[in-house]
Amino acid sequence: MKFDSLENIELNSSAEVITSRIFHAAGYNVPQYTIAEFPPSKLVPDPSATIYDDSGFKKPLTQEKLEEYLLFLPQTEAGKLRASAGKILEGDVRGNFSFSGRRKNDPEDLVNHLDRREIRALRIFASWLNNNDMRESNTLDVIRYENGTQTLTHYLIDFNSSLGAAAKGPKPPMFGHEYMADYGETTKAFFGLGLWEKPWQKRWREAGEQVDQSPAVGYFDNRYFDPGEYKTQLPYFAFKDLTLADGFWAAKIILAFTDEDIRTIVKMGQYSNAADAGYIAKTLIERRDLLGQYWFRKANPLDNFEINGNKFVFDDLAVKHNFVPQAQREYQAQVIGKSGGRGTRITTLDSKSAEFDLENWLDEYEEVHLLIRSQHPQNRDWGSFVLVKVSRDGVLGILHQD
Q1: Helix or strand (DSSP H, E) at 311
Q2: 326 vs 317: CA distance, rounded Å
Q3: Cβ atoms 83, 3 nearer than 8 A
Q4: CATH number of the 302-400 domain
Q5: Model confidence pLDDT, tens digit, residues 60-93
Q6: String of DSSP letters for 145-211
Q7: pLDDT at position 192, please?
Q8: Using CB atoms within 10 A as the burial measure, which of 153, 222, 250, 377 is most buried?
Q9: Domain residue extents for the chain
Q10: Looking at the DSSP assignment, which residues form a beta bridge with residue 375?
């Protein structure tokens, strides 16, 4: 169990429950975290429990010492303690997993974690949930034995420093904007001679140099939020190697959370003030859309490709989520016919709707490859491509440009 700081009841516990459930819904493995409230009298020391006191020596944990600790924990209006309770994972714990290499003792861990999309894209999920404490030490590998078979599961753990929370209260202003040791930002500040105001400094100044939300919310808003510049505390190579395709993949998942989904998950944080729950949900919804707009502008946002007769149809997710009107979108496809391992360039198609007419090419060739680009109204150059391989049987393969 993890408790809130004395002056910020609900801050860390609610953040952990909300963020863990969003990661679970996004497809990641996480322990179950639940809000637990109980009277202090429910906590009693185990006869064998020990602690290390201020002198560094191990001593028995007495009831008197336990009650002394409880004095530094906040209580609800009903006089109860409140915590985020994490369900203990069953199995053989094997420590953390790496964001770069592989587990040498796992024959099925064949791909370097640095090259795994779900690892690199953690940076984007962290930016949505303001989980700047995303690090290797907040992961856990667990082996389970079932029917004579070993299964290794990779978990993300510890989310009590997400949203507006840090380890001991509201987030410091620079979190999410700078690494723990950010030499680049330090150099810019040095040569700026104090004249250059960083975005997080401006944000903090505009807030009156104080947390301007309730103690349960902490420091969490979207002022000067830049999806492309968000930084976790530690600069992992996996996060720096994030590709356009990774960004599209993560943004597509994040945009799948509806407003109602987000509000429902936030309710699991059990805020006592409905205004706090409303603010957290509103901020997450706004940040979801900011992320979607950014990544669907950087990457090619086309998806859900289908063959309908001689028509090749698709969805433009930027249009679907109302980031761009269909009237301002244009698409271009280079069409290549493939038969017997040889390719023939057929033509270049242009369209202002989310479809292309393939005429009779699906009958003439074994496969037809379409290299599709789209134009964004803020950038009249053709953007990144998506390669779609199709035949009369349907879609054979999809490759988004990295």
Answers
A1: strand 311-316
A2: 11
A3: yes
A4: 2.60.40
A5: 999 999 999 899 999 999 999 999 999 999 999 9
A6: EETTEEEEEEEE---TTSTTEETTEEPPTTBTTB-TT-HHHHHHHHHTTT-PPPHHHHHHHHTTSS-
A7: 77
A8: 250
A9: 88-299, 302-400
A10: 330
Q: Region 327-331: what's the mean pLDDT?
A: 93
**CA nearest to 93, candidates 4, 154, 42:** 154
CA distance 321 to 125: 19
Whether residue 229 contacts residue 184, with contact meaning beta carbons closer than 8 Å, is answered with no
List strands edge to edge, sheet with 330-339. Answer: 342-351, 330-339, 367-375, 386-391, 394-400
pLDDT tens profile 91-127: 999 999 999 988 887 888 889 999 999 999 999 999 9
Q: 249, 19, 35, 285: which is closest to 129 by C-alpha?
A: 19
Model confidence at 198: pLDDT above 90: no
User: Do residues 33 and 86 make contact, with C-beta atoms less than 8 angstroms apart?
Assistant: yes
pLDDT at 386 over 80: yes
CA distance 143 to 150: 6
